[in-house]
């Protein structure tokens, strides 16, 4: 019987509670305890009695009423109360455990979805994403989706989903792949990254998608099929050569990529409500008003057509994405002031 009640359904508990309340009412009525069964007073008294709070402002006065309370109301009420609390505790524990193991199905949108697990590299990636997010006016949720046999590496900080495949709808729907704002793909195997990027493009063509490859030859192959995907190949060799001929280059690039050390590189899109602006005015006013340095732009946000260090006479239009260097991200830009003489 104990096992039955421990594993009982919620409708069983509700039924037992209703039976307990009705029978307690009639027993108290039969014992002439009319003060205890008056409208809301009965519900109030039964709740504080069954939960052992026992304020003492209401109590039985007849001998029969005291026997009913001592032999029926209190013992049965304590049993039901303990059963309810136990089930609630078990449900909370199970929900927390499922979240830790990545078994829950999420209900999110406009979130950042990180797909893949590379141990310390993924942990560093998540740390940097959290720092970048904290500097944003809105704080999107962060979801880590993996196939690896791990638990949530940051419980309470990020959401976590464990799947069998990055290409199955029922698995990826749990991570809300179709409603993500940004999708970052970084797997140990480049072929998994390739197939995952193709799948995510099909499920969410409007998301900003970034994929990391160790093999540079796969970048052009993916972009032939998915031109909107931003691919980031390994540049370790290039950095070695650059640092050899231009000492300090590796530290410079590290500084521009890190948001913890000095200046960093950021981007912003010219709003559609703004006017066209020349590079000359933007460069001068961005430095004057925000102490930031304009370094390039992507027409209509197309990173494949990015222009670095454009001539001063070039005109920038609404919808273009600007890239700049600053100590921190500029969240509020007065675009009309940047066009001033």
- In terms of DSSP E residues, the strand content is 5-15%
Q: Label the CATH architecture of the largest domain.
A: 3-Layer(aba) Sandwich
Question: What is the structural class?
Answer: alpha/beta
Distance between the termini: 84 Å
Q: pLDDT average, as an integer?
A: 85
Number of helices: 12
Strands, count: 12
Q: Note the run of SSEs as H and E.
A: HHHHEHEEHEHEHEHHEEHEEEEH
Helix content: 40-55%
CATH topology of the largest domain: Rossmann fold
The residue ranges in which pLDDT falls below 50 over 5 or more consecutive positions are none
Query: What is Rg?
Result: 31 Å
Identify the strand order in the major beta sheet.
3-2-1-4-5-6
How many structural units, i.e. domains? 3
Shape: elongated
User: Biggest β-sheet, characterized?
Assistant: 6 strands, parallel
Determine and state the CATH class of the largest domain. Alpha Beta
Can you identify the CATH superfamily of the largest domain? Answer: NAD(P)-binding Rossmann-like Domain
